[in-house]
Fold each of these.
Amino acid sequence: MVHFLHPSRVPRSLVPPDARKDAQGWRVVQEEASPYPLVDICLNVLIANLEKLCPERPDGTLCLPEHWNFPQEVADHFLGMMTWQGRLTDKTASIFQGNQMNLKLVSIQKAKISASAFIKYFCHQKLIEVDATAVHSDLPVPDIIRGLCSSNWIQQNLRCLLLDSASVPHNSRPLSFGQLTGLRTLSVFNVWFHSEDLANVSQLPSLENLDISNTQVTNISALLTCKDRLKSLTMHYLKCLTMTKPQVFAVIRELKCLLHLDISGHKQFRSDLAFDLLQQKDILPNIVSLDISGSSYITDRAVEQFIQQRPAMQFVGLLGTDAGYSDFFTAKQGLKVAGGASLSQILEALSRYRNRSCYMRKALHRLFTETFSVHVTMPAVLQLTREQVTQLDEDLFMAVKELLAIVKQKTTENIDDPTLLFSLKALWNLTDESPATCKHFMENQGLAICIQVLETFSESTIQRKILGLLSNVAEVRELSAKLMTEDVVKHISTLLHSEQIEVSYFAAGIIAHLTYDKQSWLLCDLQRSALLQDLHASIQKWPSSRCKMSALVTYRSFKTFFPLLGNFSQPAAQLWALWAVYHVCSKNPSVYCKMLAEEGGLQLLCDIQVDGQANPQAQQIAVSILEDFRMHFTSYRRFPLC
């Protein structure tokens, strides 16, 4: 699946903030049935070989061969790929000089290029949108504005400018956006942006969408200048605001065209502004989207009354508040809620708050709790109606899809943070003993994303979570064959030899499950034999099953181990299963020895103990487990022992 940029019928808007469904205009859209995967392959080859394929100018910069010309959409996509791969530099950006690359949508997020390179290589183009989110400090905001204003065409036609987290030198004069008369959307989230800058921006004749979150704005009265055209206003974590609540409401009350308002708080700045806003009856008559996540004193009743007075509302953000729990929020048709009261609300929050780490942590924590409760209450799930079961399945499908999107984004950006770890842990938890969820995982390119993670990060914590997740998929017989790809086998074989016992353990488990069905390996039996030999050799290097792992290994059931325990033709896989069972039984015998007995596993151990063809090491572990059971359950007569 490829992301590329193309125009739609109307200009981009931030109302409401949903990148796929609600943003209007020039935007990123997923095209599943397009030929762009082939284009990606070609462009990746070009990016990897830029120095070989592109001649060098006398000044050391690169230029395209004379006969090369890129269509606009391909040029936009190529630039985006270079940016994401970290290949956009002053030297490589020079290929955009001239007219062989016709750009409209420039994405230079986090790129390290100089102001002179930006102006020379991009500002001669007929740009509609510029995304300079978190661009390196070598290209500060004043230089971006100066470069864009150097083109009369851009002054009149640039519609969208995203400057989130870009730098502004403290000694620079107030920012001047006044020449960008065609600008409709401006985002200066987390930028050194003051009230005088807001006064300048508010005079832009076409401005409709504005994000001033986490800026130094103290007074928003300047917004009255654009009250008749402003449709979207985002003021998340506006911590420096010095106006009284009546003064703020006096401004907001005049914004009659406003469709989206975001006054959400932050864990370091919980405001009661939203609480008082909900009490106002003569304000925001046309609002369709209100985000008050992270606000104090919010109640279901107050939110319900506000929405009932404004029936056109389609979205409300309530994450981190005490609201969202009443039946009203599920009963109202067409209303989306980003909150923590249900799985659907959590998924909406994950979708909308990708760039707000404080909300992502909260939503992922709630998701983990919610998905764990689904497993714990599985008997109750069996009592659900067909419609309720269908809804649950759809929610789990969306949960997998959103989590994989988060993992892919973090991996592409090479960001190893708590959000990535929480997402992987939630996926691991969701797929545990859930074949349907494992199927959703595979259908949403989960395997390719996992390979990308393993190729990007080498931390054992991440490797362990990926392997645990793939172990869950390997346990599903109808899916395990799909894991037998060259990339998967290569990575698993490598990780089997990890010095971290937890990593080696989970890699071994995947091999044990993948090699169980001999029929699937008819065309590569030699490889299967080699894997099993490698598995057996690796287990010999492990410490005793009673060893302590840095990460606690837990299981909800032993049933997926039983086929391995009963398979005497595959002693290496049987040995791994015994090692795993003994490990958890020795750590928590009151739980796991009892589970083993109740699920019928004792007889399998007895069979191993007495079978003349069994591996002596396997027999010894089986004996040890049975002895532990006798020691901890001397009075447990319910299960006869061999």
Amino acid sequence: MSLRSWNPTMVAQGVLWVLFGLLLRPEPGTATLPLLMDSVIQALAELEQKIPATKARHTASAWLLLAQESGPRDLVHHFLLEGRSLKATRLDPHQLSPELRGLTKDVVRHGVRAGQEYGVVLAPDGSTVAVEPLLAGLEAGLQGYRVVNLPLDSTASPLDAGATFADTEATVPDVRATSPGFRDVLPDVISADVGAMYSNVRAADLDVKPTSPGVRPGSPDVPVTSPDVQAPSPGTKVKSPTTVDSLLVVTLARDLGLAFLQGPQTWSHSGLGTDGCWDQLSAPRAFTLLDSKASPVTMAFLNGALDGALLGDYLSRTPEPRLPLSHLLSQYYGAGVAGNPGLCSNLRRQNGAALTSAPTLTQQVWGALILLQKLEPTHPQLQGMSQEQLAQVANNATKEFTEAFLGCPAIHPRCRWGAAPYRGLPTPLQLPLGFLYVHHTYVPAPPCTDFAHCAADMRSMQSFHQDTRGWDDIGYSFVVGSDGYVYEGRGWHWVGAHTRGHNSRGFGVAFVGNYTAELPAKAALHIVQDVLPGCAVRAGLLRPDYQMLGHRQLVRTDCPGDALFDLLRTWPRFAANVKPRTARRASRRSRRKPPPMILPASGLQ
């Protein structure tokens, strides 16, 4: 192959197929890297160095064949991404380091078994990410956006090794929402109204009006209703999709639909987006879910799926020469891709909401189920399912995803920031509550803009509250950083120590920083004003008629700072009838010496 015919995309695809092959054929007894995103990036960098550019396509095909020989075939992935002529030269796995080969036994396929989640890694922003959907999105992006025609009958099998699909090369002009991409996204990007996004799903979009029975997760007493979504009447003709988008299907749509196929009883508590805890944060090895009955569509899976879709979208729109994949991931899980702080993992939910509309995602979930039904007619969950039933599943899956995931902030659980145990016995709250009390931490005074500093601030505040104040735990219900994340304090279910005399009536939410003369980041303000309380109302944790108050309205203090309180007074939910209590003297918070700060370190436990 001449240099003129060398194609960087072929190299990147070759790297991915080698990594896919390694992930599917682990070798026991080799050293393993910690389950960190940095380890995955290290593996990609090593593969990029090992694979000759002139053999990239051959190498990709070789590892594709190896993957097919080593376990159950993913029929949807094969049909959408692998339906090519397979002529390969095999790469000797021993050309790769023992550490890379050892990593594969820990990051195989994504799965949930006995309360443990496998195939996930810890990212620098503190989030846990499933590797499989991330890599699938990168591969789909390298191949370009494609409208894939669904097979009209189950006899058109795509599984013959020599089969090619000439009808899968069309570009997809309408998959993304009106937002054309993320080149102009600002660091303080604010998500779209996700609730309104879902309300646009109409009968005209689906030719069917399935209902959404049941209740939302975390709210056993609050029914879910949607006036725009109704069950189809008997005899209703359902118009099913005839094409799908390969990127959305291999990352998100197929697995989202499968998670909602088990019957109406799972729609009320699907376990969608369940998070978990690592055994340690410096060199993680095992990840245990907080809910042992969680669906496979966990928080880590959704994070990986969104990251794969967003980066795949970026790759599909980026001309040659592209960044090496190891560099792309380093930037995405760092300060932002190509110097754009708006395209980074911290903002995956906001960017995910802009990537595709709810009607489009519903069609993609529905189309993915149709495709799987065609490719695998004996699939136990799909046998006998009518188009009306598949449409209803797709509608419910999209509704739950847009409301319970995209419509809620990303909250790091206590174990993620290294919380010390609660001292004593916590007192349960009587939910739903009617108030949200706004604070600033004052100390730490600087806003925290990355996970390491925010987690250190959380540990410092908890230490001060427990050891100096003598409280059982950190006082706040939640703390909001300037890194795009919410940090769990006492959480939704336990009485806090944030607003004297009112702790059992409302949640205490604090911004990290001193906001006497300046305001928090726009994204952090949006979380507290809209996203966090909106999510709590939908979950039955906060009353629909809730009110917001500044700390100074109930306690003699300067908190939450003059600048922040002046802004709070303009918010629609502000309780203007409660007058601020004038501080007779400087508040204890402002007079006390700053607690000793726990500096960020590589290990948080």
Amino acid sequence: MSLVDEEGNQDESLESKTLSAEDQVKDHSTGTRVVAGQIFLESGKSDSQSENEENFHSQEEEKENSLEELNSLEMSNLLNKDLEEPSKLRSFLTAIGGTADGEPCHFPFLFMEKEYAECTADGREDGRLWCATTYDYKKDQKWGFCESEEQSNKRRQMQEAEDVYQIGMKIFNESSKKAQKKVAYQYLLKAADMNHTKAMEKVSYALLFGDYLKQNIQSSKELFEKLTEEGSPKGQMALGFLYASGLGVNSSQAKALVYYTFGALGGNLILCIHLVLLSQWCNFCVAKTCLKIYLICFPVASDISLTGGTVVQRIRLADEVENPGMASGMLEEDLIQYYQFLAEKGDVQAQVGLGQLHLHGGRGVEQNHQRAFEYFNQAANAGNSHAMAFLGKMYSEGSDVVPQSNETALQYFKKAADMGNPVGQSGLGMAYLYGRGVPVNYELALKYFQKAAEQGWVDGQLQLGSMYYNGIGVKKDYKQALKYFNLASQGGHILAFYNLAQMHATGTGVMRSCHTAVELFKNVCERGRWSERLMTAYNSYKDGDSNSAVVQYLLLAEQGYEVAQSNAAFILDQKEASIVGENETYPRALLHWNRAASQGYTVARIKLGDYHFYGFGTDVDYETAFIHYRLASEQQHSAQAMFNLGYMHEKGLGIKQDIHLAKRFYDMAAEASPDAQVPVFLALCKLGVIYSLQYIREINIREVFSHIDMDQLLGPEWDLYLMTIIALLLGTIIAYRQRQHQAIPRPAGLRPAVPQQEPPPEHQAPQ
């Protein structure tokens, strides 16, 4: 399914995620439970947590927090309530027309020796729903319609739309070819024309991004407005995005916030994240904010397997353009084919590498468990311990390709662990921790996790931290837990970020810091499935579709992705997006450069200085430009920023002119980057000339010469010496000129003509 479809289904898939009982180990003393290395808070509290709460909150605030938690959970249950209401109202249906007009329907009722618990269309050719008002229809012949004729026609129309929608989705999901997906969207278009809500959501996003349909911002806006009127959270989110970015409408942050709020209240997970992070950045960070974002990040973290979840590829367009030689992290097609060739020839390392690449996805390669299993199987048969361990992982977690089997997983983990493989040791530790195929044994689990952690394997570090946190098999030790969570987070394990965020949010083992917790939670939330659109936006840009790319980057930028903010600003800066007016290009680029710079991106900070220096999208302001360059220089040690500071000191722009400070910054730039040495050398040469001219201008030359005594310096006959030197120089020049006139060079390429000799008479051709 495409990313548009995943956006359409992400809320349901994440909120409906359930956790098996075998994945849970409860510690009643701490009031927490561990699920695949995650620490989930329950009603009970640890001692340190209770002490912190007594210090920070009164009983009234705790009640308010509980209410906030209930309200947040209610958002995810709105859909379930909507499904329950019809069953409650069913018994109050009143018959329309028929032989019992106005009488209440009786459920269940008997018709054709079959009981019906709801209205039915059986027995009618027109498909109109009816019910009996007594139990036995055959005996009493009391009946009436459950709907008016208008309602019946509308219901049949919606059923027809649903059938068309399902056909389109079936074609879309069963094929990976672009042509077939375009055919599928023709069915979705037809269903959308029939007011099918899900079809309208998918078509509107396809029109917005240009996915399988021609990009049309105005048409997508009309569909979003229609969806918003019907109360669709996805429509409200998209309309808020249009007002925030000014696409197809006049930009209005106030309207955007209103639509975002309604969408979040409707249960849109992305908007919940956006609004909570917005409250954090607006300095409204309190315990309620931490609680909200914890509840939001829970389904994201639950969706992450022990392999760490899908890889999020972050490629900055500005870095690619300014540093063409720098690797972007993408694998070229010919390089992948080369590794495939090596794997087919039996290269075990190539097989393991390709197996991991297809297992996790990323670097331009789609996730493919079938291919991963085949490569791992080949390498495992050759005796590779790493491949055995990853086969154990695949069997332990299960998928559509590999059936879940604890026994098979245990066999592979044991083989890999016996060979000293940390992945196998960690997998064996999981088996003993949760009793998968073996009796639960915390001591053995701790032993294998320690072995894996000593070799730097992030899963081993994560699980070891969880055992210390919950006191499973060891004495509870929050400092040790923090240590191992930090180590796992340095390896990029997202569940480690999640656990660290909870510890900072509750003040467990560390000083309570809501700001730190929210930053860590943000890292978790950005690993949701919606982050995969970063790659689709990049591919659109590489295919030359800048309009589609900029819209996708702008949407992700609204969700706080720094890479998306900088990439959107870069495309606008290059004026490659025709959907944005020329007068609006630089102001919007300035906005997103500012957002990216606030998240620590050096190039964005320098760009802010450039925009204020040259007056792009704002008035020329040398002082503000100087501030941005100084921040980039001090915080990120940017050679470009140092060079710019040197230039501004040299010219006296935004700061008092100071040639000495200019030279200092030029020297610092040369030390910071070898690439800056040549421009710095030229700048210093220029600076030397300026300094010399300035020095000469400041002194009186006549006064200097008046103090010079030539007789004292060169002797009383210095004029004779000078005349002799001049005569010698003149003679040398004359002699050199005479030698030039005597040597007349022959023009190159000319040779004396050689007369052709006639051939001997005996060799002459006959006349």
Amino acid sequence: MIQFWPHNLDRYTTWPMFARDIGPDSGSALSTQNLYGVHPFYMCIEADGKAHGVFILNSNAQEVVTGPGPHLQYRTIGGRIDMAFFPGPTPEEVVNQYLQHIGFPFLPAYWALGYQLCRWGYGSLDAMKTVISRNQAAGIPLDVPYADIDYMNHYEDFTEGDNWSGFPAYTQQLHAQGLHLIVIFDPAVEVDYASFQRGITADASFIEWARDDQVPHSIQDQYPMAKNTRVMLGNVWPERNTAFPDFLDTKSNTNDWWAGEFAQFHKTLPFDGMWIDMNEPSNFDTGTYSSMEEQLASAKLSCPISGPDSSLERPPYPTQAVYQRDGEYLFSKTLCMLGKTARRSRNFYDTKNLYGWSEARATYQAIPQVTGKRSAVISRSTFPSSGRYGGHWLGDNTARWEDLQTSVIGVMEFNMFGIPYVGSDICGFNGVSNEELCLRWHQFGAFSPFSRDHNSEGMPDQDPAVWPSVATAAKIALGFRYYYLPYLYSLHYNAARYGHTVIRPLFFEFPKDEETLEISEQFLWGSALMIAPALYQGQSKVHAYFPSDTWYSLQPETYGQKMFAGFNDVNAPLSSLTPVFVRGGFILPRQAAQTTTTASRLNPFEVLITVKTNAASSGELYYDGGDDLIPNDDIEQHPRVHWQFSFTSSIVGGVFSGNCETCSTAVKPPTLDTIEILGYPSAPNFSGFKLDGSSVTLDMSKSSYDASTQKLIVSSKNFISLMALKKKFTLSFSNN
């Protein structure tokens, strides 16, 4: 991982890629260790601002060396070289071309864009209830409570522990409040209970040993269900040995069994989304052996390091993924490379990096059978095209300022990888967080597409309600997020339908501005909103960069104020909104914020129009059922309304118009009741507004013009219909 952009090409640096259960190390000056996923894709920005990208499709252990010249050297130890070149020439076009190659991202349910609260270490259901209740009482917007592995019976998938009796009833209570529940599932299934037996009965495939004589019967024979199989048994969270489903099964048996387990458990616990963890896949304490006798005497999974069976475990060049760790092998913390996958047609050596991707695909495809509604899948391990099936959190980070800082780059990078539904564990997962860090992380995390507070077992609580100052900051930041969720959801629609990014580095919009190439602590929502969070301890101002364009402040203290191009020191108080700015020439949809997305979606729409001199403003609104399934996974078939807006003005007056690009009568959006315009230079004639040629009576208690700030607000109840029958509208007005 890198801490600042761009990559330092004045030195030789080796970047290994091999999916591994290891968290980010932001505390080191340079950390090149391979993390949870593999993305062999890079983008280059040339001196003239033009960009290109290169993708190398390969699922083996691999590495890239960057160095002076500049140059890039690629190595892999298996498979084939399948390269694709994307000419751009803009950074956004490079990503768009890449996503056309690997597939567009999924569209999450609307509720999945709400704030999410989680921790590992709820000792009981009552402990979870206490945390959720105190945050609701504090007025924190909240949509998705989580349950980590604590809820399971001895960490077995698809079970409920004794301390969690009443969990289904509590879930129904959450649903009645407009909330949704996500729970965790690990891929490894214990081999002595009903889920595994149903898998065997269904002829599901599991990762297996290559030959019968490799099977360690000292382990295998303990389990009647696995005794006469070649299933490779490992050790993860459950108390006894586990099997790893083969999601690359060339038949549908494994994925069908997996979906069936979700569906059966859903009848007991009506969860709404799936969080899949440990899917590199991770195995605890993988050992070694030099002789079969040693293997048979071991009580845990061990892999050969000598003899003819060791050729995949100790290849001639094991890549930097192994070289940088003394005494470790490719199989360390995972399964033996000689294992068989794809129903015994492939070696695990070749497919390991695909495991998280294949589990995410199987889990995503199970959703129609499980919940019957659109949902969200969150996966730790990812691979190119994982974004088609789910989102990603940035892993087991640490409660320190360096991890907050690198989270900004992480969120932007995964948008380039085609996984826009991404975020970090707010406040930090490992270690003890603190009030200021947790506050600043919420101020940043409220602008991550996936916004979740999560921490580790044994660590003190760090939910916003723990500290009054954090609760206040979280309410402000999340209140802004919920206010602009229609805009964020429309960006996700653009990602899903057209293959665009949601979060963007500044250089995506301003590639010819060399200063933007080194801005790694600011980012954009789409093209219009720029966020410049405070990321350092004791920081009270942000030295923010404003590319040459029209920018308006959305901070309450300076709302509507134009910002000068170049670097500006902007205030970043602990008790106010994150520094956020809107670009001139855009139209952003929004809705008044409630404490759930369920309630917010019922409010009338508003739009924020930002004026840019001698240019029209434009924007769009995407609205659908929020959690209805997308027919055949084809968004073109999805019932929706997709409005495209434009605004033009002159010394005479202004014209705001809308065109419904796609309008389904099955979708019933609220009316558009309020229009706010920043940078409007003249007072309008409030009695002269006309909608499609007919006079409009405005609510003057909510309509106003401020000449000092050039801010115009017009409002009327049931002002503009956005229903499908409308198709088009034009609102015109003259100036005084």
